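Sample 1 of the test manifest.
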Amino acid sequence: MFKRISLWVGIGLVVCATAALQAEGPLPDHPKDLQYAPLDFKLPPASQFRGVLSNGMVVYVAEDRMLPTFDMTVTIRTGSAVEPPDKVGLASLAGEQMRDGGTKNLTPEELDERVEFLAASLYSEIGRTRGEAGLFCLAKDINEGLGLLIEVLRYPRFDGERLRMAKDRMLQNVKRRNDSTRSISRIEWGFLMDGETHFGNRYPSSNTIKAITREDLFAFHRKYVHPGNMILAVAGDFDRAAMLKKLENAFADWPTGETGPQSFPAPDYDPKPGVYLVHKEDVNQGRVTIGHKAIKRGSPDEFALRVMNGILGAAGFRSRLVAKVRSDEGLAYNTGSRFNQGIYYPGNFQCWFQTKSNSCAYATNLVFDEIKRMRDEKVTQTDLDDVTAYYVESFPQRFQTRLSLMEAYVDDEYTGRDPKYWQSYVDNLNGVTVDEVQRVAKKYLHPDQLVVLAVGDAEAMKIGGHDKAPKLRFDVFGQVKQLPLRDPDTLKR
Amino acid sequence: MEHDSYERRLWIVAVGLLLIVASWPATARGEDRSPAPKGVQPREVTLENGLTILLVERHEQPTVACGLFFDVGGANDPQGKSGIAHLFEHMMFKGSMVIGTSDYKAERSYLDAQDKLRAKMNAEMDKMRLMKRRGGIDDVLDPKQWTPDYAAMKKQYDELVEAERTYIKKDEFSSLYTTNGGARLNAGTMEDATMYFVQLPANKLELFFWMESDRMVNGIMREFYVERDNVREERRLGVESTPTGKYNEAFDALFWQSHPYGVPVIGWASEVESITRDDVRDFYRIYYAPNNARMVLVGDFDSDKAVEMAKRYFGRLPRGIKEPPPVITEEPKPIAERRLHAEAETNPRVRMRYHTTAIGHTDEAALDVLAQLLSGKTGRLYKRLVTTEDAAIGEPRVNNQGRKYAGYFEVNVTVKEDRTPEEVEQFVLEELDKLRDGEITDHELQKVKNQVLATSVRRLRSNLGLMFQLGLYDTWYDWSYINEAPERMLKVTADDVRRVVKDYFDPKTRTVAIYRTKGGAPTEGEDPELAAILEKLSPQQRDRTKAMIKRIRESTDLDRLKPMLQMMEQGASSDQIPEEQKMMFEYVLKVLSARVAELEAADKESD
């Protein structure tokens, strides 16, 4: 009873408040009627920050005086792509142990102590197609911090005990790759798209980890970590000219070596369309990924593809997959799409969601329909305008700090993208038309080539039984193949 | 919307911030509280209806981080309706009588029809729950097990939803923000706060006032049951289908005996599935009122203009229909240690928790310093567990979390697979003992204080980060916590730390979770005979046996091994070993006598 009364009281209040809001004052009835002053935003060009040290090292340096801090990121031309296949894990260990394994002058413990006493942060790591090291410290500690970072980069100790501990940790963690559907799905999707031999799908196993020696780390480091292979991003509370001089001095006597990899090989593999199920015990939700190969970056269709994919699934609640799978049907908390235009070789197009086992086939059908619809129907002008605005209007927010802008420019330099890319970014997006969206959808989305990967309770996913389509099964999307779980260590079946 | 736990504490330091954050001139504004001129000093304005507004101008980037924080969270969920605060947060994105509809009046008739039908469906659902209790069905959500009546009504309901769609402007609320450059649009529900936020281009701040003042009062629970299903999926995603989610939830429930913190913010499955549109409407009228909220703006705007807009848009909103009730349940002092043994697909792990204090308590700073002394690569736990004992991997996570009503101190360590969580637990306890009575050096304390200072500066770098801190601290305590907490930490002495260890780390008050790897992690090069024996043991016995064998094999101390061998031999002949442990016992005995023989032989050689 109380509930009923309070409900009516509540509604009464709502009505009053609405009336009050609308009746008094010049408040617009709808936010569409709000008038905004123009925003004066110009992205400063890369050339304003770029410098070259006398040893040829490229640096991007920006003053940022808001706080008494200092940040530096070092991008290193290397990657696990270039490690020998019988020592997978070497690049990652070398990257991590530059920092963790101490330096010529400091034991790992002494280095840790110094870094933590300064309350700085200092890290190094090597991923698949690049290495990175970085420093954050207070501006008062710039000299000492910079000194520590350079020591880590130039004179790593690769302490034997720290290396053993790191290898032990890796040996333990390789066994845990089948713990979650997230991990299983990520690894399996890579194999389905790019095949098992591509470097992007090489994972350390206990055999390759054990084969890595301290000498391997030294050799890897010697070959790839030197000023000719580094690009710096620096931002903080300093005078730019003085900082350039400081960097010049700091790196001057470090000789450069041979240049690291400029590009990385494409996979030699054609994905096989169909439905792939992987069974995982004790989960009540299936993790589904749907997609196929995409293209490489630098195509004239890059921006049309970005808008097309935004409308399909990448522009938050304004995109169709979120509207359909989540908002209309209540099937998934997390759904969307990505059309990844790879830097060195074609990336892949993927749509995803996670939903209770018996809804997996039904939701997959919704995603297939939306993909087809992108090709078959022209998007509306409103769709196009909203999604273009989604990217264009938030553009000034992309680079919230000077450091993030420097890092974006370093990234362009490292990957060989035109430094004017960001200057024409907004115009390029605004130039996309409704016709172009449909043209690229037809050209780059291929419903007949879709691969579906579903990880979860395989039996329950197969049976389906969503109340709106009780008879729908996975086999309508292609041949269904159940893949056994891989051995977590070797990733062989 | 994403559910943020905000476990990490955010420290802000007063020192040196005069230059950083605009300090407000003491103009004669009646409603302004005059802040002491140091640290982060937002301008603070309170409207007559109780809405608090905190403003910090920073003009480096042309954006404004905007947040609205409500003093409500999972801890306020009524009995039997866990998850309501979080579900409601989702509903706030579903539009209002103005936003998200092309004709509210027309839409309204469908909503009413849905409510009527839903009441009947709920009654039928109660019948199905009864059937489930009696064993007639085993899942009320499985369409194949629904009663014909329920299935028919569900179909009818879906048709009404479909018909309503004609009038729905799909997700217009979110679109209005994102097409105007609103970035990071999201919300989060915690135990003691619900927050809504977006970062806008500097020229579009008015949009925030329009949208937020509208949804604070004109919200309607559109697409309610569909969104409830999404939340149910969110729970499957975050808790039920992860390797440790269910165990972590069980651990919280074990730690908090009576306090609502023991109930998950996302809600228990059976309760989330049965929250109704009526339930959330009542909730809305009490908690989503200006007197229970604060707004925080950080970034590139003019605060005089912002205050004017706040008055225009929010000034006329009414206070809530009644004052929100406080949470009064207190956690009783635990009378016995509690332990959870989990077997999960994860690395072995130990989590140890002690009850500590609410946020802002006089002992909090010393507990925070203690957590720091134990953390990091040079902290006491890493040195002991990783470097000395080689028993853990990665940095142990140590955290003192003072929430609005109560708090805890937690140590969380990933254990090496050839060691046991119990061993690691023992090492942690020994380290705590050393802090109880032993020396804490000036260097250690100074390091913590340096970190307090640096971390604070660092965390002011983003407008969004500062906005979150001000909003959350003001909801839980007072925004001034941002300045006070680090000041208090800087004053903590070694004696303070020793005292809190004595006062709070009583074994009776602790709750421990032991995670073992499901099926046991295979040990490399393991003797097949041992593997067969281990298979028959419980996970706990398995770990203990492995650890014992490892210790025997590594020991060089004949003076300890020999008496042990003697005792075990006596035990073997006494027939007192339980049948199921006999094989294990004999195996250990074999290892032990081999090790003793080996050491004796080595001794002889060296003689």
